[in-house]
Amino acid sequence: MQKVLVTGGCGYIGSHTIVDLIKNGFEVISVDSHINSNRKPLSGIRKITGKTIKNYKVDLSDRTRTQKIFKDHPDIVGIIHFAALKSVGDSVNEPLLYFRNNMLSTLNLLECSNEFGVKHFIFSSSCSVYGNAKELPVTEKTPLQEAESPYARTKQMGEQMIHDAALEMKKTDFILLRYFNPCGAHDSNLLGESPTTKAQNLVPVITETAIGKRKSMTVFGDDYDTRDGSCIRDYIHVMDLADAHTKSLQYLIKKKNTDQVETFNLGIGDGVSVLEAINAFEASTGQKLNYKIGPRRAGDVVAIYAKIDAAQKRMGWKPQRDINDIMKTAWDWEVKRSK
Length: 339
Ligand code: NAD
Ligand code: WQD
Prior knowledge:
The protein is 41% helix and 17% strand. The protein is an alpha/beta fold and 339 residues long. It folds into 2 domains: 3-183 and 234-267, Rossmann fold (3-Layer(aba) Sandwich); 202-232 and 270-309 and 322-338, UDP-galactose 4-epimerase, domain 1 (Alpha-Beta Complex). Helix 1 (12-23) runs parallel beside helix 2, helix 1 (12-23) packs across helix 8 and helix 3 packs parallel to helix 5. The radius of gyration is 19 Å and the shape is globular. The two termini are 38 Å apart. Bound molecules: nicotinamide-adenine-dinucleotide and UDP-4-deoxy-4-formamido-beta-L-arabinopyranose.
C-alpha cells in the first residue's frame, strides 16, 4: 500500500478525503495541530472505513517536529496539504498569524519533501486566488487579480512558492487544486462540517438557521446585476472534492502529468445564486427557512464560478452531486450534530 501524509486530516475536507483515499487502497497518516478541529472526525473515519488513522498532533510551522514525522515514515510517497487557517475575516484582523501558520507550514513541508524524496505533492488552493476575476467562468489561465484578504494572499503565495521550489525539487511533482465553495457532508452522516466558531459560509448558516441556532439569516444583497439579484457561486460537494484528491494522486502516480506543477479548478462548473441555494435547501429538506434580504456584504464578488474542463479531461474527474445533494447531506449532518 502506498503511504500518503494528509495534513489537516481532522479538518472538514481532509477528513472526507481520508475516507476516499482509504477506499481506494492508500495507507494514510494524518498530521493536525487541532488549531481548528478536534479528534472526533477520526472516529467518523474509523466507523466508515474500519481503519484507525494515526494523527500526529503537530503544528507544521514547527520544523523539527514536522521533520520527525518524515523520519518515522521515510516511505511517504505523497502529501496532500490541507492544513491552513481559512477564515477570510479573521485573516484581516490577524494577518501575522495567517502568514506564520500558512506560509511556514507549506515551507516546512516543501523542505521535508525535498529532504526525504517525496514524489507527489498536492496543495489546497482556493478560488480566492482569482480575486475579482475579469472573466467568467474562470479557467486556470484566467489572470489572478490582487488578493482581497491576507488569507487569499497566503494561497497566492503558496502557489508561487511551489512554482519556484519546483525548480529545485526535481524529484517532486505538484498539483495545485483551486476549490470553489466546498459544502455538504458524507452520505453516512458520520462526517461533516463542524465550524469551531460561528459559521459564516452560506450552507452552514442556512442549516444553523433552519435548526434554530439562529433566529433568521440574511441574504447579503438582492440588487446585484444577476438573474435574481443575489450573488452567484460555484458550490461543490465535499465528497466530489475528496474524489478529486484521490484522482490527482493517481494521476501523478501514473505519471500522466505533462508539467511538474499543474493547476486545476474544482467546482461544479456552474453558478448558483444565494436565493437558488435557499430554494434548493427548502425543496430538498422540506424545511422552511427564516431569511430576510439585507445589505450587501463588504468584499463580496458579484459572481464567480469555474470552468472545470481541465480536471475532467486530464484526470477523468467529474462531480457527481448537485446543490440538492449538498443541502440534503448538510442538513442531515446538522440535525445529527445538534442532538
Ligand atoms: P479546516 O479548518 O476544517 O481544516 C484544516 C485543518 O488544518 C484543521 O483541522 C486545522 O486544525 C489544521 N491546521 C491548520 N493549521 C495547521 C498547522 N499549522 N499544523 C497542523 N495542522 C493545522 O479547513 P477545510 O475547510 O478542511 O480546508 C482545508 C484546506 O482547503 C485549507 O487549506 C483551506 O484554505 C482550503 N480551502 C477551503 C475552502 C473552504 O471553503 N472550506 C475553500 C477553498 C480552499
Ligand atoms: C457565499 C454567498 C454571500 C452567508 C468563501 C471564501 C473563499 C473560499 C470559499 C476558502 C455569498 C452569501 C453568505 C450569509 C449570504 N474559502 N451569504 N448570507 O464568500 O463565496 O467564499 O468561501 O478558500 O475564499 O471567501 O463563501 O459561503 O461566505 O458566501 O447571503 O449569511 O452566500 O454573500 O454571495 P464566499 P460564503
